[in-house]
Backbone:
């Protein structure tokens, strides 16, 4: 067994003290220690080794052991007759989000993938993790606690896929669905309405288990960090999730509570989709380098769709609340013009390049937003093609039975085959246009929504600077008005550039009054600073509209059969 230990001698420093003890044999020379360069759930290199300080290795007699770094995150060790090794180092834990680690006077929060190296070749060996924390502190974690403050795992993979929060202030409630216990842990200054929370969580958990037929793990833990500032993040794990939200005191307010149940449903769905139903390219995870895959539209897009959709099916969201979420996704999808230039499959592959950064203008598309829109189109069109006999649920069930349950990774071709086998009568065009192409999505979505008595409405952007002139503006912390986005081939495209600081319009100083100054204009003169130099720019309207808004709406003239389809889809009356 390999023994890990974590301490936080001075939480104010944000450094954790980490040690690893394990026996070695003469055959293990040299051996290697490897810390992950990325973490599951965020497909980009994060290079956790950059947070390590004072790395040392000693033998059973406390003598130094020879080692050297051979890559940025791998160490070669030569035990030279040692029977036991102790590796020790400090790790800087000051990242409060769902994928980081944090220490302060009130808690110890660790994502082990950040800071616990593997002994290469021994990843399948059982491990133990001891936390040196005050006796009275509780531990929220998906791992079993075999002794006081000692967690155990069957393998390195299980260990690093099990985040933990240790604190004297944890709040806890639990519920059961299908004889499986679910635990909701909350760290933070808030007042949960446990009755409402339990009712809602029970409802969407039941809906998800009913969809798949069973649950992949024996228990499940929602680990919530409620912080005192605005925040939103969630990360999935094998039998747990970490969710960071804020401001904590607004937990039961309408907006934050909707986020709370929304991200919780999303992360729970990941227990099947990505933790078990996993792309072949990630079987198993390789923590040393990029794991390229082109099915992010399945892993994240379908999960984004189902996370909200199942809340409506479970009755947690009203139909109106579900459409609010759908329209929010539409708004995010059309916020720039990247959807014209890059397919969602290519965007999946390029997660490792710039998937989580704003990136250059109009280059890419989101696998979450485009993937979710592609999923709703697929669901409704399968229903249309089969007269509601089959749905996207059918595809998810097959993915679970044929791949997830068996521990087999699926390929792009496997997913396409399962979709084709539902009987969708235009599956080839669906993949060519929507998944591997950049065809405009509104016609497809409007047609799909029509099957359930709804339509996609295109509305002109109420912001004149965006709609008529093709530029977005942003107020900087210094109260400067800067150009933040420009629509291709718009009037602004010919005269403005990003980060131009707007000062005056038609010789009138801009003071939060730009909308009024633009009203009724067909030609405008802008005074601006570009690279600290004063410029004059003239823009002429071309009568076109840019940055349009789209929204899903119910049709007032919907037929009875469409309303019946709506009920079969959403489990709510039209």
Residues:
């Amino acid at each position: 067994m390999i023994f890990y230990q974590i301490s936080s001698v001075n939480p104010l420093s944000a450094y954790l003290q980490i040690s690893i003890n394990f026996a070695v044999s003469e055959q293990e020379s040299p051996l290697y220690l490897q810390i992950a360069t990325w973490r599951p759930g965020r497909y980009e290199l994060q290079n956790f080794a950059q947070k390590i300080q004072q790395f040392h290795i000693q033998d059973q007699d406390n003598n130094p052991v020879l080692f050297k770094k051979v890559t940025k995150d791998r160490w070669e060790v030569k035990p030279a007759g040692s029977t036991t090794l102790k590796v020790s180092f400090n790790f800087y834990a000051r990242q409060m989000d769902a994928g980081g680690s944090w220490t302060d006077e009130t808690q110890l929060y660790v994502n082990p993938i950040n800071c616990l190296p593997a002994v290469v070749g021994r990843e399948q060996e059982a491990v133990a993790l001891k936390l040196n924390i005050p006796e009275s502190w509780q531990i929220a974690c998906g791992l079993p606690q075999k002794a006081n403050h000692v967690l155990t795992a069957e393998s390195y993979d299980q260990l690093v896929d099990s985040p933990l929060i240790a604190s004297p202030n944890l709040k806890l409630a639990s519920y059961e669905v299908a004889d499986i216990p679910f635990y909701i842990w909350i760290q933070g200054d808030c007042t949960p309405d446990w009755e409402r929370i339990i009712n809602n969580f029970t409802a969407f958990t039941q809906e998800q288990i009913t969809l798949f037929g069973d649950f992949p793990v024996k228990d499940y833990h929602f680990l919530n960090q409620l912080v005192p500032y605005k925040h939103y993040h969630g990360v999935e794990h094998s039998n747990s999730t970490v969710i960071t939200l804020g401001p904590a005191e607004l937990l039961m307010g309408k907006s934050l509570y909707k986020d709370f149940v929304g991200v919780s449903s999303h992360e729970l769905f990941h227990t099947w989709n990505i933790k078990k139903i996993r792309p072949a390219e990630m079987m198993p995870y390789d923590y040393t380098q990029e794991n390229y895959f082109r099915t992010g539209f399945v892993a994240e897009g379908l999960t984004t769709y189902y996370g909200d959709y199942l809340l409506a099916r479970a009755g947690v969201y009203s139909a109106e609340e579900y459409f609010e979420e759908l329209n929010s996704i539409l708004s995010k999808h059309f916020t720039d013009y990247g959807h014209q230039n890059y397919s969602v499959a290519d965007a999946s592959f390029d997660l490792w390049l710039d998937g989580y950064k704003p990136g250059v203008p109009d280059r890419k598309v989101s696998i979450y937003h485009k993937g979710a829109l592609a999923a709703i189109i697929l669901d409704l069109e399968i229903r249309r093609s089969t007269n509601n006999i089959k749905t996207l649920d059918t595809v998810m069930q097959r993915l679970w039975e044929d791949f997830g349950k068996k521990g087999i990774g699926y390929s792009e071709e496997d997913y396409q085959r399962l979709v084709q086998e539902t009987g969708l009568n235009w599956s080839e065009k669906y993949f060519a246009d929507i998944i591997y192409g950049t065809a405009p999505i509104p016609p497809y979505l409007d047609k799909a929504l029509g099957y359930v008595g709804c339509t996609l409405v295109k509305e002109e952007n109420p912001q004149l600077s965006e709609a008529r002139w093709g530029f977005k503006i942003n107020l900087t912390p210094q109260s400067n008005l800067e150009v933040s986005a420009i629509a291709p081939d718009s009037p602004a495209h010919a005269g403005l550039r990003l980060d131009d600081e707007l000062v005056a319009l038609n010789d009138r100083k801009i003071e939060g009054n730009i909308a009024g100054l633009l009203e009724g204009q067909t030609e405008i003169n802008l005074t601006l600073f570009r690279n600290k130099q004063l410029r004059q720019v003239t823009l002429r309207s071309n009568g076109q509209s840019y940055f349009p808004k789209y929204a899903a709406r119910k049709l007032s003239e919907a037929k009875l059969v469409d309303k019946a389809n709506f009920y079969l889809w959403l489990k709510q009356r039209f």
About this structure: Residues 2-167 form a domain with the Immunoglobulin-like fold (CATH 2.60.40.3650).
